Every structure is written in structure tokens, then in C-alpha cells.
Amino acid sequence: STRWPCPPRFRSDAAHAGIAASMYALGIVCDSLSERGAARQWYEQSLAMYKRVYGEDAAHAHIAASMHALGNVCHRQGECGAARQWHERSLAMMKRVHGGDAAHPSLAQTYGMLAQLYLNDQDFEAAARTCISWTACHQRLREQGGRVDPAEEQVLEQVEQALEKREHDPRYQRMQRMRAKVARRKAAQRS
What is the model's pTM? Predict the structure, then answer.
């Protein structure tokens, strides 16, 4: 197996979005080769440089994507608490970038990861609340002519099935009403 080197620490004060994008791409390569430690370091370097480029407190899609990638790699490393924190930070930033009620695939993906992490932590209230937002995001995507990933739909159904045990929970009932509304709109669009 090829061992990818961990990224060098850049000592230059120069910051460039292209360099940060290359670091991010190297993180993707390492992650796809199951070199999680190296992937994590590349994503961390990417995030740090994007923050230097756009500003420490700036809301930018590239910063949110780096946070999302860090959440994914932490999840694969079994660090669910860290994954949850990265995805929560990523979601907050994506909402600032795209708008809280935006129909954006990145928002849908992050809602999905968080719902699964909350469910794994048996935080059923947070999982149900996140599923409501996830379903609403899917609905807005469809209304705007966007595509919802079928695999994501399957995961949403699996999370909902796990939450069925919480049938009397008001948040779960709200999620069910939202799903019924989406189903009616889908049926109306087919007619």
C-alpha cells in the first residue's frame, strides 16, 4: 500500500485559495486510499489556509467544505464526537453562506450526516429535529428542480425507521407530516 506523506507545515505568510484547494484535493486522495491520518492533516491545513485567505471569521463555502470533510474523516476514524462538532460547525457556516432555508445539496448532505450521528448517540430529539430540516431541504431542492441523491433518500428512510420507536414524540410527528406533504407534492408533479 502506498503511504502518503503527511503535509508539511507551511511557514510562509503567503496564503492562496489555489494552494488551499490543492491541500483539500490531497485530503480527498488520502481519504479515498484510507489514509485517514494524512487526510485529516491535509484537511486541517486546507481549513487553516482558507481562513487566512478569506478571514478567520468569514463565512465561505470552501471553509464549510473543509469542516464537512474533517467531520467525515473523524467519523471514519470512529471519533463521532469530533465528527459531530465539525458537521455542526459546517452546517452553521453553510447556513450563513447559502441562507438558513436554502435548497442546497451541501446542506442536505450535512443534515444527513448529523442525523446519523445523533441517532448513533441516541440523541433522538436532535435526530428527529435534524430529519425535519433534512426533509424540508429535500423538498425545497425538488421544488427548485434540483436532484436529491437516491442514496441519501434511503439513509433518511433508515433514520426515520429508527426513530419510529419515538412515535409519540411531537418532533417525530412533525417529521411525518412533512414527509406526507413531500409525498403529496411528488404525486402532484407526476400527474
Answer: 0.77
